């Protein structure tokens, strides 16, 4: 139980802040990178600054959309590197080229299916199962201990 809560706390912190050496986590919500990265996987990324062909990167496509795709070509110009990307499951490359300023990081680690656990925990049933029930069990256990200690004093 404590291990589950610890893992969830680390996930929550790392998904909201760039901590622990610049690592950050994201939940994969589409199948554009299958079979290498599946829907429901959690990816851990790190900002590298320099990226190469075949690197799998996570980038901000627009203000409200973050995408993880593979670099299929790199072009250098006076403004810096420009990257063409493509999802492994997609037939064609992405429309827009990506600049360094849009890249959040390179995929460092893929944790298979961990996202399904996160989604379950965020649900009402998951909250009841992992927070409410253990809290009730803990409180009842403490009440039993208090009652037992009171009987021993008498």
Report on this structure.
The protein has 154 residues and is α+β, with helices and mostly antiparallel strands. It folds into two domains: 113 residues, Umud Fragment, subunit A (Ribbon); 32 residues. It is 35% helix and 31% strand. The chain contains three helices and seven strands; from the N terminus they run H-E-E-E-E-E-E-E-H-H. A seven-stranded antiparallel sheet has the order 1-2-7-3-4-5-6. Helix 2 packs across helix 3. The longest helix is centred in the C-terminal third of the chain and has 30 residues.
Write the layout of secondary structure elements.
Layout lengths: L1 H15 L6 E5 L14 E5 L9 E7 L2 E13 L2 E7 L11 E2 L3 E9 L2 H9 L1 H30 L1
Antiparallel strand pairs: 1-2, 2-7, 3-4, 3-7, 4-5, 5-6
Concise description?
The protein is α+β, with helices and mostly antiparallel strands and 154 residues long. Helix content is 35%, strand content 31%.
Total number of strands: 7
Number of helices: 3
Sheet with the most strands, sense and barrel status: 7 strands, antiparallel
Query: Average pLDDT across residues?
Result: 85
Number of domains: 2
Q: Name the shape in a single word.
A: elongated
């Amino acid at each position: 139980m404590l291990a589950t809560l610890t893992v969830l706390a680390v996930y929550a912190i790392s998904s909201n802040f760039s901590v622990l050496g610049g690592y950050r986590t994201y939940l994969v919500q589409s199948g554009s990178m299958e079979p290498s990265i599946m829907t429901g996987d959690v990816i851990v990324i790190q900002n590298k600054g320099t990226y190469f062909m075949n690197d799998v990167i996570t980038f901000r496509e627009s203000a409200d959309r973050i995408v993880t795709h593979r670099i299929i070509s790199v072009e250098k110009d006076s403004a810096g590197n420009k990257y063409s990307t493509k999802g492994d499951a997609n037939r064609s490359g992405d429309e827009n080229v990506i600049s360094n300023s849009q890249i959040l990081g390179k995929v460092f680690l893929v944790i298979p299916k961990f996202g399904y656990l996160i989604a379950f925990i965020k649900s009402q049933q998951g909250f009841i199962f992992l927070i409410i029930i253990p809290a009730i069990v803990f409180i009842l256990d403490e009440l039993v201990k208090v009652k037992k200690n009171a009987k021993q004093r008498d």
